[in-house]
């Protein structure tokens, strides 16, 4: 019951980020020096995941190219003796990591994207990571969840407290507390208005799911926005299986929004070992 597979739904149109996403995937937007998708893949790898399943769409080729070998570049860096850069390039895809791409021909929703990975996942538990949500934790957030999974062996959703006026942006959960950080979920609703939200605990883009989720998604009608929602599948799942909500330790940047993306860039630049100190000095010179 180890989590070795992860689904990355990356077929979205990125409309919140137009015009920059007109001809390039939002998952390739850089935070300091790495594209968003690489942060999510590194987080999954650090949690023990080795099979990365990307659910892609048209215009998403740069993601495949990024995780492919760049032969000419490697030869050039080797020839010019730039060993450090060569390592940076090679480490994007360690040898024991497998990348698989399936296409989601129509953008029918997150639940539908997860269904596209069903044949590859088979009968194993798996993770879902939404690259828009950039998570930074002393211990990577998915690794925290994998550890919990090895103890509980049930589906686990990463959650955080959100402002009341933002419940309409998240899947919102309610349930019975097990400890300060764990909740036995008995309700989950996709993007409720604040007045009807069952709590203020919003799902962040990290999930560990049991394969039972596939039948549940398949039997749900279209949900919010006319889309096949993962949240509705989870609502079905928790009638049959235990589902836990976990208040993760770490910081989430909503890189699907311009503000969150800029915050991630500033804070990760400040924390960057090479450019951090100089960048801090620069920010201090700003008259703001
Ligand atoms: C999706 C999910 C939502 C979750 C959110 C986290 O929404 O549907 O339940 O809370 O991701 O980022 P989206 O942001 O794709 O609209």
Short description:
The protein has 288 residues and is of the alpha/beta class.
Features:
single chain, 288 residues, alpha/beta, five-stranded mixed beta barrel, globular, binds 1-O-phosphono-alpha-D-glucopyranose
Helices and strands, with pairings:
Layout lengths: L4 E5 L20 E2 L2 E2 H11 L4 E6 L4 H6 L4 H9 L3 H8 L7 E6 L6 H7 L1 H4 L4 E4 L3 E4 L4 H12 L2 E7 L9 E7 L4 E9 L10 E9 L3 H6 L11 H8 L5 E5 L3 E4 L3 H14 L4 H10 L3
Parallel strand pairs: 1-4, 1-6, 4-5, 8-12
Antiparallel strand pairs: 2-3, 6-11, 7-13, 8-11, 9-10, 9-11, 10-12
Helix pairs in contact: 3-4, 5-9, 10-11
Bound molecules: 1-O-phosphono-alpha-D-glucopyranose.
The site of 1-O-phosphono-alpha-D-glucopyranose (G1P) has 13 residues, from β11 and α9.
Describe this structure in words.
With 288 residues, the protein is an alpha/beta fold. It has one domain: Spore Coat Polysaccharide Biosynthesis Protein SpsA, Chain A. It is 33% helix and 24% strand. It has helices at 36-46, 61-66, 71-79, 83-90, 110-116, 118-121, 141-152, 213-218, 230-237, 258-271, 276-285; strands at 5-9, 30-31, 34-35, 51-56, 98-103, 126-129, 133-136, 155-161, 171-177, 182-190, 201-209, 243-247, 251-254. The strands form three sheets. The chain has a five-stranded mixed beta barrel. Strands 2-3 form a two-stranded antiparallel sheet. A two-stranded antiparallel ribbon has the order 7-13. A hairpin with a 2-residue loop joins β2 (30-31) and β3. It is globular and about 60 Å long. The relative contact order is 0.16. The model has no long low-confidence stretch (mean pLDDT 95). 1-O-phosphono-alpha-D-glucopyranose (G1P) binds at residues 110, 130, 133, 170-171, 190, 202-205, 230-231, 256.
């Amino acid at each position: 019951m180890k989590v070795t597979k992860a689904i990355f739904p990356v077929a979205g149109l990125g409309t919140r980020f137009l015009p920059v996403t007109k001809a390039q995937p939002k998952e390739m937007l850089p935070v300091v020096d790495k594209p968003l998708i690489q942060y999510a893949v590194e987080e999954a790898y650090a949690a023990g995941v080795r099979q990365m399943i990307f659910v892609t769409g048209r215009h998403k080729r740069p993601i495949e190219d990024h995780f492919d070998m760049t032969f000419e570049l490697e030869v050039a860096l080797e020839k010019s003796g730039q060993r450090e850069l060569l390592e940076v390039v090679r480490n994007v895809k360690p040898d024991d990591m497998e990348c698989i791409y399936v296409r989601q021909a129509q953008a029918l929703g997150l639940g539908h994207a997860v269904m596209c990975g069903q044949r590859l996942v088979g009968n194993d538990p798996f993770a879902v990571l939404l690259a828009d949500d950039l998570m930074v934790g002393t211990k990577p957030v998915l690794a925290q969840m994998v550890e919990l999974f090895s103890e509980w062996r049930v589906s686990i959703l990463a959650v955080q407290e959100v402002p009341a006026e933002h419940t309409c942006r998240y899947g919102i959960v309610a349930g019975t507390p097990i400890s300060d950080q764990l909740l036995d979920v008995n309700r989950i609703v996709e993007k409720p208005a604040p007045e009807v939200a069952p709590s203020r605990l919003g799902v962040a883009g990290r999930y560990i799911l049991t394969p039972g989720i596939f039948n549940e998604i398949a039997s749900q009608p279209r949900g919010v926005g006319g889309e096949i929602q993962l949240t509705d599948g989870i609502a079905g799942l928790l009638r049959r299986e235990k589902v836990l909500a976990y208040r993760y330790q770490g910081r989430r940047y909503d890189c699907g929004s311009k503000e969150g993306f800029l915050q991630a860039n500033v804070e990760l630049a400040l924390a960057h070992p090479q450019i951090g100190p100089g960048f801090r000095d620069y920010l201090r010179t700003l008259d703001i």
